[in-house]
Specification:
alpha/beta; Alpha-Beta Plaits; Rossmann fold; seven-stranded mixed beta sheet; four-stranded antiparallel beta sheet; 15 strands; elongated
């Protein structure tokens, strides 16, 4: 136990990273039976930054420890410095460890100083302290093309924001005026134990609204698009709009569904995201106000576990203009998300929901992490998180994945 008779010393080591450095320093410290109170290390472009906070026991002399460390540093061509830490200062630092922690993730095709400066200023204005900054994306070559298409940096910050809502709005404003995404989330145990990801289908997993595609083939494109737009913006009741739209599809040949399914434009990053989620044991689901025919096609194509959508009635190879079973609207999506969480025996905080329209808001609010993906302004403003620039695989970085852990 630390007391006034024991010295506390902060050791800082910098220089070119080399094998065996940490082992050599620790072997010296172990000879004097010091207690390690904290330590951290980072390497940027082979340049090492290592900090060790240690307590010198009463039976050891700090002068001897420092002399041996200096000699070893000289021997290994490394710079070393020492800072005595007063006990009161150390205790104040210990007291702060119970403060709330948050993660701010910055994702951009190209990371600039301007990006970091604007985010850091918001952190300062909210009276938060940056503990660590980590790069989640891989190293990008400046000479050769590679598969590193985005730069991702994660800030771990400590403290209580002055105004969490204002902080979120400030980060959204920064992102909306630039070419990058920002996510702000609490750093808690659920962030590291998400187990189920539920996706909207149209304009989320695929870059189209299937009902509009069907309508074009049926020659009623303009009429259906008007109803779709009003429904997605929350201007009319989804169920009523759904019935009106599919009624216009009456007489469409079943073969048209197969033709559209085989040409569905998969959203950027969806393959990478689903492969990685599957590899690490996540369960996935489509909860869609679209149609089961296309949801099942994507289930087979992307390896998705569950599909809940609307089933079109087909008779004699033609659409009847009617549907079967209960309509999957916004309320039903939220209910299905809750049922799936129960089935998988997980907490709602462990569920991620991803969608773009007003009818996705109930499930985005129900999930532990709700993500508005390339969404309408009203949806983006209401959701916990928004991805507006990057692809679906961005979700992996919000979960803390690094490029080296992602399945290509």
């Amino acid at each position: 136990m630390t007391n006034n008779n024991n010295e506390i010393i902060l050791l800082n080591i910098s220089g070119k990273d080399k094998p065996g450095l940490t082992a050599s320093l620790m072997e010296i410290l172990s000879q004097y039976n010091v207690n390690i109170l904290d330590m951290g290390q980072s390497v940027i472009h082979q340049d090492l930054g290592l900090g060790i906070l240690f307590e010198v026991p009463k039976e050891s002399k700090s002068s001897s420890i420092l002399k041996d460390l200096l000699f070893k540093a000289y021997e290994m061509d490394t710079h070393i410095s020492f800072t005595p830490v007063p006990l009161d200062q150390y205790e104040e630092w210990v007291k702060n460890q119970g403060k709330e922690r948050y993660l701010i993730t910055v994702l951009a095709p190209r990371l600039t100083a301007s990006h970091i400066a604007r985010v850091a200023r918001v952190i300062v204005n909210q009276k938060l302290n940056i503990d660590t900054i980590s790069r989640l994306s891989g190293r990008k070559s400046l000479k050769k093309k590679n598969n590193i298409t985005k730069a991702v940096v994660e800030f771990s910050v400590r403290g209580k924001p002055v105004d969490p809502a204002a902080m979120k709005q400030s980060l959204l404003d920064i992102a909306s005026k630039s070419d990058f995404d920002i996510a702000f989330q609490e750093d808690n145990v659920f962030r590291r134990t998400r187990r189920l990801v539920c996706f909207d289908m149209d304009s989320t997993l695929i870059q189209t609204e299937v009902i509009d595609e069907l309508a074009e083939k049926a020659g009623v494109g303009k009429e259906v698009k008007k109803i779709t737009a009003r429904a997605m913006h929350g201007e009319i009741d989804f169920k009523e709009s759904f019935r009106e739209r599919i009624a216009l599809l009456k007489g469409t040949d079943e073969a048209v569904l197969k033709e559209i399914a085989e040409k569905l434009p998969i959203t950027e990053g969806a393959d990478r995201l689903l492969r990685t989620l599957k590899q690490y044991g996540y369960r996935t689901a489509i909860l869609s106000g679209g149609f089961t025919y296309f949801g099942n096609y994507l289930k087979a194509r992307l390896g998705i576990d569950y599909v809940f959508a609307n089933e079109l009635e087909i008779k004699d190879g033609k659409l009847t203009g009617r549907h079967l079973h209960e309509i999957v609207d916004g309320k039903r999506k939220a209910e299905l998300l809750e049922l799936l969480a129960f089935k998988e025996d997980i907490h709602l905080e462990q569920v991620i929901a991803v969608g773009d329209g007003a009818n996705d808001l109930p499930m985005l609010e129900k999930a532990g992490m709700g993500i508005a993906f390339h969404a309408k302004p009203t949806v983006k403003a209401s959701a916990q998180h928004a991805i507006s620039v990057n692809g679906l695989d961005t979700i992996l970085y919000l979960l803390g994945f690094r490029d080296r852990e992602i399945t290509e």
